[in-house]
Specification:
single chain; Uracil-DNA Glycosylase, subunit E
Length: 239
């Protein structure tokens, strides 16, 4: 490999891996591929219509490889459903860090859930775009919250909390909330209360996907939003 650059070596390794996966060990049928490794300065965030810088969308720029570590994690079977590491919205010292249970596909929220989430942070909690961050308790799209995946991802979530240093957290959904709080209680017993996780005031409400599945939750969720915005200090702002 003398005289070859790191870039050339990397691209050669990618070609070799592609041939192995395809069973074309001698490279007889797969044409060489030219890759472009360009750093992107802008990336679309998980929330439709919002843009985030590279450092906001991927924590590796400020955490020394956390995003890459998540992308290569095989600590549970959840990685089998992962084709990419789901991007998050990361900000330093946000007023609120929202924690979803798990990604709904290759993004944290499905399009329908994204629409509800945007309405909640913007119109209900009266937050500015710079005041919130978003992640998921389970990092891979496992299809349903489960303890095995949550245990494997706990170290990543803890690292994100330490990096972002949010003033408060809002946990979406009964399963994720009960797991994070260590309380085997229904969501009706967790809503409308103030908890503390790692010295951070934390609140529980239904997830956007809960609302999409059951619109009759509208009143309960609105009451949760009124309670949370009083707690986080945004009550009285103009919507």
């Amino acid at each position: 490999m003398e005289g070859r650059t790191e870039r050339e070596i990397l691209l050669s390794m990618i070609d070799d891996a592609e041939r192995i996966v395809s069973g074309d060990f001698l490279g007889e049928t797969i044409e060489p591929v030219v890759y472009s490794l360009e750093e992107k300065k802008e990336k679309i965030s998980p929330v439709r219509g919002e843009t985030a810088s590279r450092s906001a969308a991927h924590p590796e720029s400020s955490s020394g490889g956390l995003y890459s570590e998540i992308a290569s994690c095989h600590s549970c079977t959840g990685y089998l459903s992962r084709s990419i590491a789901v991007p998050l919205v990361s900000r330093v010292n946000p007023r609120v860090l929202f924690i979803a249970p798990y990604p709904e596909g290759q993004m944290i929220f499905s399009p329908a859930s994204q629409e509800k989430f945007r309405a909640w942070w913007k119109s209900a909690l009266l937050l500015e775009e710079s005041e919130w961050a978003l992640t998921a308790a389970v990092k891979c799209p496992v299809g349903a919250f489960n303890k095995e995946a949550a245990d494997a991802c706990r170290k990543f979530l803890r690292a994100e909390m330490m990096e972002m240093k949010p003033s408060s957290m809002v946990i979406f959904g009964e399963s994720a909330a009960a797991y994070m709080l260590g309380k085997n209680l229904p969501i009706s017993a967790l809503r409308g209360r103030r908890f503390v996780i790692n010295h951070i005031p934390s609140y529980v409400t239904y997830s956007p996907s809960d609302y999409v599945a059951d619109p009759s939750l509208r009143k309960d969720i609105w009451n949760d939003m009124l309670f949370i915005r009083r707690e986080i200090g945004t009550e009285g702002r103009k919507s």
